[in-house]
Amino acid sequence: MFPLPHPHQLHVSLVLFVPVVCAIHMAPAAAGVCSKEGAQALLGLLQRVQSEALRALGPRDFDPKLYVDLPLAADASAAAAALSSLTRPAPSREEMEAFISRYFAPAGSDLVAADPPDFEDEPRGFLPKVENAEARAWALEVHALWKDLSRRVAPDVVARPEWHTILPLPGRVVVPGSRFREVYYWDSYWVVRSVHRGLLVSKMYDTAKNITLNLVYLAEKYGFVLNGARSYYTNRSQPPLLSSMVLDIYMATGDMVFLKRAFPSLLKEYSFWMSDIHNVAIMDNHGRVHNLSRYQAMWNKPRPESATIDEEFALKLTSTAAKEKFYHQVASTAESGWDFSSRWMRDSTDMTTLATSHIIPVDLNTFILKMEQDIAFFAELIGDNTVSESFSEASNARYNAIESVLWNSDMEQWLDYWLPTDGNCQGVYQWKSNLQNHNIFASNFIPLWLNARHSGLGRFVDEAKSVRVMRSLQASGLLHPAGIATSLSNTGQQWDFPNGWAPLQHLIAEGLLSCGSAEERKLAEDISTRWVRTNYVAYKATGAMHEKYDVEACGKSGGGGEYKPQTGFGWSNGVVLSFLEEFGWPQDKEIGCSL
Ligand SMILES: *[C@@H]1O[C@H](CO)[C@@H](O)[C@H](O)[C@H]1NC(C)=O
Ligand SMILES: *[C@@H]1O[C@H](CO)[C@@H](O)[C@H](O)[C@H]1NC(C)=O
Ligand SMILES: *[C@@H]1O[C@H](CO)[C@@H](O)[C@H](O)[C@H]1NC(C)=O
Q1: Domain spans of the chain?
Q2: 171: Cα separation from own chain's centroid
Q3: Which residues partner with 480 through β-bridges?
Q4: Which of 20, 188, 393, 534 fits as disulfide partner to 482, beta carbons 3.0 to 4.6 Å?
């Protein structure tokens, strides 16, 4: 069981080793070759190219991200001069295309293919429980996609960082795919997971470590793990799963050198999430004060990679202050990984009502509690018992906070909590039951995942309670023929109904699986079966793995959102391989949709 809490000792001991400072005052990078001014100047130029391109090409099929990904192929001042002399008010398509090919290299050319040396076509001991020949052949094709998605930064990026928005990561990378040409933070967890789970015997540990050490490098340099490895992602993070990656690799390899290398970055990242901008204090009805975390980007301008879209939404806002507030919420929503969703909107039909930094999210606090448990476990391994105890205490305090502030015993779910949007967001808020968000989201069930005893620490939910949560999930309306829906509202946003996302299927199924009862195991397997089938059938129909799926019908990929649906796709591949590893696929089980 979960050990007894000692919340009062927590901060006394924490301050001893984690400086309670805002990691957002980013120290100048020690080893930084790339000057911040250079990076900002390039971004400014690329954003001017982006808006010029919109004028030249029109809004149809326009992807603003393409332009901030362009590497320079000539001196920035020459490119800037040529940009200024393009025809007014709008250059023709031909003129724009000629300008871009003259001064820029193709988007994506800043990364080059890199064969993972530890890749094998059919690793020994690959998915031993997958007996069905069709399922097996497909799993091998999905496994082979790791080769397609493997890259390293091009030599030119190291030689001339000021020509590139890609950040010079030291190791090999696995990208999600399509327009997501660079490393993403939380996506990487499901890539690493499958690398270590599915390919345990083939020992793709080097690849998993390369991926994870790149994120460690970002934490060392910026004080936190960036949303992604581009200079336009330096002001926000993403759901924090670095400690989970480190843990999985350590459990597979026992590599203490790797663990010690990653450990200081985990402490750094932790203080980022405990800093003033993320930490919120809530007083419950018994007068106990709890600390929980929220998403909050350090940014109040249009996101460079989506500037033309953000500016369009901001048109209806008149004052500069209102626009800045909106841009801040947009970037904070991107930090949540759920961009965009009715979950973060006061009015689900109006993007300008995004209020992410005024919400205490269930999933974020689940991930941070996991981080606290992981750090406690690592510190014990390293032999630092003081740190280990402090982090156990921190995780106990967060356990109490989640149960007091987010748990709802009528619904038998954990609910996001709304903070007042007026006032200055300082001080201690009084808990009120009507401030829990009673809408149903897949994230309401993610704390079950803490039962998966990754680091051998305590259980989060006891068996009786987990069965009640399972019943609540079954009655929630989220379970559909092709998986778990993200929410119940069809808003046209991509993190809403009817889209289902691989990480959410995996976190919930893995949680249920670890809860213990036969019924929960069966539901976990059922979710996995539906998900694997829909991925398989869509793959057969389109030749690709998709970023998201429509859970209403088997074999249908997802839609909605601010960009065209993408294929590739890192976390979808990772989750399918993890499910097949866990549950196998018997000889006589149909893999198509018919059953
Ligand atoms: C990446 O993996 C290679 C082996 O394939 C290894 O030599 C290298 O040190 C690793 N780099 C990092 C940053 O982990
Ligand atoms: C954004 O991040 C950059 C790079 O770390 C930093 O220099 C800058 O101060 C940050 N901007 C804001 C508004 O915090
Ligand atoms: C919550 O955070 C505040 C400010 O960092 C600290 O003083 C307090 O002790 C914390 N409370 C708990 C229960 O962790």
Answers
A1: 440-595
A2: 20
A3: 483
A4: 534
**CA nearest to 274, candidates 384, 183, 401:** 401
335 Cα–ligand 2 center, Å = 15
Catalytic: 393? no
- The pLDDT of residue 118 is 87
Q: Is the CB of 22 under 6 A from ligand 2?
A: no
> Distance, CA 231 to ligand 2 centroid (Å)?
10
Task: Supply the pLDDT for residue 459.
Answer: 77
The C-alpha atoms of residue 499 and residue 441 are separated, in whole angstroms, by: 12
Residue to mutate (ligand 1; options 169, 209, 216, 217; most atoms within 8 A of CB): 209
pLDDT digits (tens, 9 = 90+) for 318-376: 999 999 999 999 999 999 999 999 999 999 999 999 999 999 999 999 999 999 999 99
Question: 251 CB contacts (<8 Å, ≥6 apart)?
Answer: 196, 454
Within 254-345, residue ranges assigned H as helices are 256-274, 307-314, 320-336
Q: Residue 37: what pLDDT?
A: 79
Q: Which two tokens stand for residue 42?
A: 């390039």
The H or E element spanning position 83 is: helix 76-84
Q: Which of 329, 321, 268, 324 is nearest to 296 (CA)?
A: 329
Tell how strand 279-283 and strand 173-174 pair up: unpaired
Q: Which of 196, 170, 193 is nearest to 183 (CA)?
A: 170
Task: Count CB atoms within 10 A of the CB of residue 314.
Answer: 20
547 included as an active-site residue: yes
Both tokens of 1, joined, read 């069981």
Model confidence at 200, pLDDT cuts 50, 70, 90, reads: very low
Q: What is the arrangement of strands in the sheet containing 173-174, beginning at the earlier edge strand? A: 111-113, 150-153, 173-174
pLDDT at 455 over 70: no
Task: Report which of 178, 175, 169 is spatially closest to residue 147, judged by C-alpha positions.
Answer: 175
* The length of the chain, given as a count of residues: 595
Q: Is the beta carbon of 29 within 6 A of some atom in ligand 2?
A: no
Nearest CA to ligand 1 atom 2: 206
- pLDDT, tens digit (0-9, with 9 covering 90-100), for 93-103: 999 999 999 99
- Containing H/E element for 385? helix 385-401
The predicted model gives 280-299 an average pLDDT of 97
Is residue 217 in contact with ligand 1, taking CB distance under 6 Å?
no
Q: Indicate the residue type of 157.
A: V
State mean pLDDT over 538-559.
Answer: 95
**264 φ, ψ to 5°?**
-60, -35
What is the token pair recorded at 435? 């401030």
Q: Are strands 150-153 and 173-174 parallel, antiparallel or unpaired?
A: antiparallel
| Angle ∠(171,546,58) on CA atoms, nearest 5 | 95
- The pLDDT tens digits of the residues spanning 122-173 come to 888 888 999 999 999 999 999 999 889 999 999 999 999 999 999 999 999 9
